[in-house]
């Protein structure tokens, strides 16, 4: 019996991670393989592969969306490894297992490359950015929920009183301030883990401290912090600085101190001074100008921007185009610009829910497998995971993607017009009830119209597409 081990992860650690893991396990077991899958999701590492499982495995599959550190890869030294983006794995697990031997390359821990797929996953800038986002998510989610609870308590008449004269602060005040810490550390954590993704652990502390400095106007004497721009710039530059610094050979005597002493100290010294005198003030000025521009965009242009963002979010359902729009909206949270992330809250839940509803309304237009997947797609879609819409799009790409994109664009434009704001990631359509999206009524208007339009477009476009397919089949 052939044995396969796999590792799956994705930027958010919510949908792709577990869907691909389940698909690999199910398909592998059907073929008579012994399969063990380690998931690196939002809950941390689960079902961690043991040394014995790895040693006995004939193949290793790495389906990654946020990359993997060199330290983590060392487990698979001398194993036959197939590495590919997690989004590609989700599209066709049977094909992946059909061609394992052809695609596998022996991995050597001393080397970096495993082939073209691995190159794209590990060295792509987007994968490093997503590693930073993945690390920052728990901070902003936890902080956002505490802020929402604190706000709800205040609305119900509870006091919001700071500590004074030896008295403790009120519960609402504590929740709001602890929650705000999540937003305070969100950007430094993002910068730190971008650097960590590139340069490993020696880059973590210097990137965290310099990004925190760049986002401290009181320390820099600037009007605004560097925001996500500072996190991206410092994370990437420090990451690559450390990556190449590690290649310097300083002799056996001091080599053992490189990782925990010399590299962090030298990197922090150089980039700390650069951040204080140059990078921080300049990035803060750029960030202030960007926020000013975003706030002063005419309404007509905001509608166009909302439409474009909505189209991007719905287009590839968790792919790179979706992630680019998501990252833009998410990154502005630390600067208290919430409308672009409001579009994310509206649009991302729509495609899978619309696909499910369409199967219930016109079951004859969908396969048995699509009908059986409709309820899980609907429920998972409600929690801001667009990925369950992917199987429907793969079965009929032109009509489904067109329907999703057009409806997403309209919903995005409506969200911007109605001023929907989302202060933190949450649990999808229930976010307004938690105080994470407001005004709640405007959110449900934009979401409801977008959902209805998406269902209508699916039935219309796919109906025409199927009719054309039947005519072509008949000659």
From TrEMBL:
- Primary localization class, coarse: membrane
Q: Where are the transmembrane segments?
A: 135-158, 178-196, 226-245, 257-279, 299-317, 338-361, 401-420, 440-461
GO BP terms in the entry: phosphoenolpyruvate-dependent sugar phosphotransferase system
Q: What positions does the domain PTS EIIB type-2 occupy?
A: 4-102
InterPro entries recorded: Bacterial_PTS_Sugar_Transport, PTS_EIIB-like_sf, PTS_EIIB_2, PTS_EIIB_2/3, PTS_EIIC, PTS_EIIC_2, PTS_IIB_fruc, PTS_IIC_fruc
Localization, UniProt: Cell inner membrane
Which Gene3D superfamilies does this entry report, sorted A to Z?
3.40.50.2300
CDD domains linked to this entry: PTS_IIB_fructose (cd05569)
Pfam families according to UniProt: PTS_EIIC, PTS_IIB
| Residue intervals of the PTS EIIC type-2 domain | 125-460
Q: Which UniProt keywords apply?
A: Cell membrane, Kinase, Membrane, Phosphoprotein, Phosphotransferase system, Sugar transport, Transferase, Transmembrane, Transmembrane helix, Transport
Q: Name one GO molecular function term.
A: carbohydrate:proton symporter activity
Does the entry feature the keyword DNA-binding, yes or no?
no
Asked if Transit peptide is a keyword of the record, the answer is: no
Membrane topology is:
Multi-pass membrane protein
Question: What Gene Ontology cellular-component terms does the record carry?
Answer: plasma membrane
In Swiss-Prot or TrEMBL terms, this protein is called Fructose-specific PTS system IIBC component
Q: Which organism is it from?
A: Ligilactobacillus salitolerans
Q: Lineage of the native species?
A: Bacteria, Bacillati, Bacillota, Bacilli, Lactobacillales
């Amino acid at each position: 019996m052939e044995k396969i081990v796999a590792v799956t992860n994705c930027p958010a650690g919510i949908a792709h991670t577990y869907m691909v893991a389940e698909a690999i396990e199910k398909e592998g077991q059907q073929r008579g393989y012994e399969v063990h899958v380690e998931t690196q999701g939002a809950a941390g590492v689960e079902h961690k592969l043991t040394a014995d499982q790895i040693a006995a495995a004939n193949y290793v599959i790495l389906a990654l969306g946020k990359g993997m550190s060199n330290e983590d890869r060392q487990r698979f030294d001398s194993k036959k490894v197939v590495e590919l983006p997690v989004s590609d794995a989700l599209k066709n697990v049977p094909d992946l297992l059909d061609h394992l031997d052809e695609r596998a390359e022996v991995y050597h821990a001393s080397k970096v490359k495993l082939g073209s797929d691995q190159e794209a996953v590990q060295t792509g800038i987007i994968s490093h950015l997503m590693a930073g986002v993945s690390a920052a998510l728990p901070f902003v989610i936890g902080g956002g929920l505490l802020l929402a609870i604190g706000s709800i308590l205040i609305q119900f008449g509870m006091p919001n009183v700071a500590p004074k004269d030896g008295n403790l602060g009120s519960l609402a005040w504590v929740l709001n301030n602890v929650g705000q810490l999540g937003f305070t550390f969100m950007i430094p954590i993002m910068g730190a883990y971008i650097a960590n993704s590139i340069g490993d652990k020696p880059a973590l502390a210097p990137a965290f401290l310099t990004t925190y400095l760049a986002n401290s106007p009181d320390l820099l004497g600037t009007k605004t912090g560097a925001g996500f721009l500072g996190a991206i710039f410092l994370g990437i530059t420090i990451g690559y600085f450390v990556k190449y610094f590690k290649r310097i050979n300083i002799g056996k005597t001091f080599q053992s101190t490189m990782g925990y002493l010399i590299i962090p100290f030298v990197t922090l010294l150089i980039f700390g001074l650069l951040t204080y005198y140059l990078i921080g003030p300049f990035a803060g000025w750029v960030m202030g100008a960007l926020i000013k521009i975003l706030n002063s965009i005419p309404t007509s242009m905001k509608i166009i921007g909302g439409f474009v963002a909505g189209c991007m979010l719905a287009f590839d359902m968790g792919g790179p185009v979706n992630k680019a729009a998501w990252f833009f909206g998410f990154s502005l949270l630390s600067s208290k610009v919430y409308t672009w992330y409001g579009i994310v809250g509206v649009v991302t839940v729509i495609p899978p829910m619309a696909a499910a509803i369409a199967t219930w309304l016109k079951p004859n237009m969908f396969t048995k497998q699509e009908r059986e997947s409709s309820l899980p797609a609907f429920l998972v879609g409600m929690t801001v995971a667009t990925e369950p819409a992917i199987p429907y799009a793969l079965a009929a790409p032109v009509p489904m993607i067109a329907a999703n994109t057009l409806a997403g664009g309209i919903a995005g434009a409506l969200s911007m017009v109605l001023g929907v704001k989302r202060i933190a990631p949450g649990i999808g359509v229930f976010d307004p009830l938690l105080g994470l999206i407001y005004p709640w009524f405007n959110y449900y208007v934009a979401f409801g119209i977008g959902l209805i339009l998406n269902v209508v477009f699916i039935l219309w476009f796919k109906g025409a597409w199927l009719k054309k397919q039947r005519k072509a089949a008949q000659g």
